[in-house]
Design goal:
Length: 372
């Protein structure tokens, strides 16, 4: 190794290790059920107390997906009330304003989960804004054309849109939403999935086309964004949770989920986290928590549901959970989260937080606690 490479690795190692201090440094068992529940409530409550973005934004859609999972785990009335305040008071059960954009449908997942929770009066009017927005999305073409050659043209959309459509289908008993989801999902898969690397390009800008626009990392590898692929893995879990067992195309989604899981475990780093750019880890400082949180969630869910081999995947999920807890400060703030963006960056540290990073942590904990 050259002196330059050695210094770079040393700086990255020191930067990460000195910035992530938490209860795990005091010999706390991070797999103890009471500890996990405490951390879910603590991090969720901190995030609710520090709001960011409008409440029906995609960022909060990911966060409240985690809050719902945390509430199901801890039964905290404070968390439940925060979701009702978001849905009813702040948002009036409205999706985001862009009917054509999956980012503005992700919050509908929490609306549907709340509607089905058994704690709300079954008032169909609560779901009507979701039905109206998604119906308009299905009936009309995407209004822009650039890299947006299909309706779900960026890989993040596979967390935002597909689970919303399938949850709506199961809630109101209309399978046409599942059939439409399958069409649009496969379009995205065909456009962005790299069948050699078993990872998704973020969008068409990162698909190799053999011309001067092709993009590569410093080490010559293709660019695969951690959070983007984390969105996909988390979305697959939320999709498989809802898809009927006898749905004819379910095997496609299970196969994709297993294939990506195998690849993700291969590129997990020694500290338990994944770097912002999955195939050039040495060039990026520290683990990136939003992508890593979704990977942890996805792997633990697969073990819990007998889809992934426990001997292979449980150690990876546990290693990730240990590392994720090191990135939560004493107040309950989840750090080491890359800010809003569309590709791997180095602009984050222990003090970098975002609502979707907390959402990923909550989803991870909600599955880790179920590990046998």
């Amino acid at each position: 190794m050259s002196i330059k490479s050695f210094i770079s690795c040393l700086v990255i190692t020191v930067f990460f290790c000195t910035s992530c201090k938490t209860k795990t440094d005091k010999s706390v068992d991070v797999f103890d059920a009471s500890y996990i529940k405490e951390m879910l409530n603590k991090t969720a409550e901190w995030q609710v107390a520090h709001p960011l973005h409008v409440q029906n934004d995609w960022t909060n859609g990911a966060f409240y997906a985690g809050v719902f999972a945390a509430w199901k785990t801890t039964e905290s009335e404070q968390l439940y009330n925060s979701m009702i305040a978001m849905a009813s008071d702040s948002n009036k059960w409205q999706p985001g304003g862009r009917w054509f954009h999956a980012d503005d449908h992700v919050i509908c997942q929490t609306y549907l989960d709340l509607y089905r929770s058994g704690k709300l009066k079954q008032d169909a009017e609560l779901l009507q804004p979701t039905i109206d927005s998604i119906s308009k999305f299905l009936a009309n073409p995407y209004p822009y054309r650039g890299v947006q050659v299909i309706k779900w043209w960026w890989c993040d959309a596979l967390f935002m849109g597909p689970p919303a459509l399938v949850k709506l289908s199961r809630t109101i008993g209309d399978n046409s939403y599942i059939d439409s989801m399958d069409v649009y999902y496969r379009e995205c898969y065909d456009l962005l999935y790299n069948k050699q690397e078993h990872l998704f390009a973020r969008d068409l800008n990162y698909v190799v086309k053999g011309d001067t626009t092709d993009r590569y990392e410093q080490n010559g590898k293709l660019i695969f964004w951690s959070r983007g692929n984390g969105w996909v893995m988390g979305g697959l879990v939320r999709l498989l949770q809802e898809l009927p067992a006898n749905y004819p195309n379910r095997p496609f989604y299970e196969s994709l989920y297993k294939e990506m899981s195998a690849r993700i475990v291969e590129i997990q780093q020694e500290d338990g986290l994944w770097r912002a750019s999955l195939l050039d880890p040495e060039a990026y400082p520290g683990g990136e928590v939003s992508g890593s949180g979704f990977f942890c969630y996805a792997l633990a869910w697969g073990v819990n549901n007998g889809i992934l081999d426990a001997a292979t995947y449980r150690p990876a999920a546990e290693k990730a959970w240990i590392a994720l807890n090191k990135c939560v400060n004493e107040e309950g703030r989840v750090g080491w989260v890359q800010p809003v963006g569309a590709d791997p960056r180095r602009n984050f540290s222990a003090d970098s937080w975002e609502v979707y990073g907390t959402g990923a942590f909550l989803l991870a904990g909600s599955e880790i606690i179920k590990l046998k």
